[in-house]
Amino acid sequence: MKFITIIGTGLAFTLSGCAIHQNVKPVGNLDQKQVCVIENPSIRSGFLDAYVRSLNAKGYQVRKLPLSASLVECNITSTYTAHWRWDLALYMAYAEIKVYNVGKPIGEAKYDATRGMGSMNKFIDADKKISELVDQLFPGGAGLAPAAPPKDR
């Protein structure tokens, strides 16, 4: 009986570490319509393409900057990183987007499936996940405040 309890406890601890986490701190009110994105050439180009498409869909104009650009080159600047892994198929295991206003951090989105070993939920469509992160990170769209909740009547 003790053996089964030990095995069960060990399995519970192992599976509790198999989690996928997503955390987004929205940028809040932005009156800017331009977002400058510092290109990260070490990341698959498809990530930047999906990020730009998602920002454009929110009404932002995107200006791409070289990796050597400063965070204060534009009023609103963004950086990104991502990692892919192989486990039966290639999947995006980690993504992080940071947003700065004149060099000061104002928002961040993280998706982390690096500990999702046993989870089939890690096999997501990276483009859709990037779009979801952008929707949460920039809730109001270009030049707009985030949508207010409906008022009760």
TrEMBL record:
This is Sbal_3080 family lipoprotein. It comes from Roseateles rivi. It comes from the Bacteria. Keywords: Lipoprotein.
